[in-house]
Specification:
By secondary structure, the chain is mainly α. The chain is built from 14 helices and no strands.
Length: 402
């Protein structure tokens, strides 16, 4: 396979200065593991659509997302075509697969397997990077800072896995808060300081493409899940209508995202993502969008399962909450690149405002109404600020073909 070039020299581990190459085949292959991750998350939420179940699913998503983000940063900062980086990514992918496989029982009998796989991912990553970057102490310090903070949270992960129950939930939540907050502030570490938040360390176009790809993976899993639900159930008009509405919703979510992103990639704003702080905040905003897509996938699955249901309030909240979360995350991403676009926020508030009345409609009709709100949001965006002509780079990064 071309992406595994074991004969290549490893003398220079970092990306060549100014290189913004598209993601390698290995990076795309790595993302495929998250088809299983997203499928497990939405399936678990379908089975346990309660506040406790939602919080547990969110903890699992935060954990898997952090493993993905740190791997993306590695392949952005370092040359992903070097054998040691490729082998490290494959090892991390294996760890992600283990996490995904035990997700249904991560808060029960296999908590230690989940926590152990997550911690092993970080050990494998920094176990390669720290010795490989010893010739450049500034670069090496980044990995040392990251592993320092994961060392602090390791007892929380292991302790929570042993304790289980609500104690496990609290300890894992605290560990994730520490990891996300420490990253946002540059992993301040005794004796090493912190990573300069204004430093330009990322490759903006590459980092953006990686986030676009994981969104496509999440949307693709949503379409797959609904399709399998319809195929496995009665082929009734309502079920088909729910599936079509879910597909249209996925299409609208993708186009809403791409509508603004084409302008970002084609313009100078893409360089803002090269800064440490903005690159980190970009990942956080995409986490909110992916969370919205997972919830929307759950709602679409429920609608395909019982398209005529009117009484389940939790289902209705999920149907409206998923797109609202996506629009919130999309708006946060706009702020990362110093823009503010009101139609998305207005669309989010409209979804929240109509949620209490949605239980009067059957589930498939609720999905159709949500699509109307999303379509209106997109039309208003296009009317207020039609996207500028995208450059070839922008089209490659995700715009529709012109």
């Amino acid at each position: 396979m071309k992406w595994l070039r074991l004969g290549q020299s490893t003398s220079a581990i970092g990306r060549p200065p100014g290189q913004a190459a598209p993601p390698s085949f290995l990076e795309l292959f790595f993302d495929l593991a998250f088809i299983l991750v997203f499928a497990q998350l939405s399936h678990d939420l379908v089975q346990n659509l309660t506040w406790d179940g939602a919080f547990e699913t969110f903890i699992l998503l935060l954990t898997a997302w952090w493993a993905w983000v740190l791997t993306v940063w590695v392949t952005d900062l370092f040359n992903p075509r070097l054998p040691k980086i490729q082998i490290m990514v494959i090892a991390i992918m294996l760890g992600v697969m283990v996490m995904a496989l035990v997700m249904p029982t991560a808060f029960e009998t296999r908590a230690l397997f989940f926590a152990g796989a997550y911690l092993a991912i970080h050990v494998a990553r920094d176990g390669v990077l720290i010795p490989a970057t010893r010739a450049n102490r500034t670069v090496q310090a980044r990995s040392v800072r990251v592993i320092f903070w994961h060392g602090l949270t390791s007892p929380l992960w292991i302790g929570g896995a042993i304790a289980q129950g609500h104690t496990q939930l609290v300890l894992w939540a605290v560990a994730l808060v520490i990891e996300y907050v420490s990253a946002t502030y540059g992993w301040p570490t005794p004796g090493l300081g912190r990573t300069a938040l204004a430093a330009r360390i990322f490759a903006g176009p590459h980092l953006h493409e990686r986030h676009l790809q994981i969104l496509v993976i999440a949307i693709g899993e949503m379409i797959l899940g609904v399709g399998l639900r319809v195929v496995g159930g009665p082929f009734a008009f309502e079920s088909v209508a729910a599936a079509v509405a879910a597909f249209v919703g996925a299409l609208l979510v993708f186009q809403i995202y791409i509508n603004r992103v084409r302008e970002l990639v084609a313009g100078p704003s893409i360089t803002l993502l090269e800064q440490t702080r903005r690159g980190i905040l970009m990942s956080h905003s995409h986490l909110v969008m992916v969370a919205g897509i997972v919830v929307l996938a759950t709602a679409a699955d429920l609608a395909a399962r019982d398209p005529l249901d009117r009484e389940n309030v939790a289902w209705t909240i999920a149907v409206a909450g998923g797109p609202a979360l996506f629009l919130l995350g999309s708006s946060l991403f706009d702020l990362v690149v110093r823009r503010s676009f009101r139609p998305r926020l207005i669309g989010m508030f409209v979804l929240l405002a109509i949620t209490p009345a949605l239980h009067m409609l059957p589930m498939f009709a609720v999905l159709i109404l949500i699509d109307v709100v999303l379509a209106t949001t997109l039309v208003v965006e296009l009317a207020v600020a039609p996207p500028r002509s995208a450059s070839p780079t922008a089209q490659t990064a995700g715009g529709w073909s012109s």
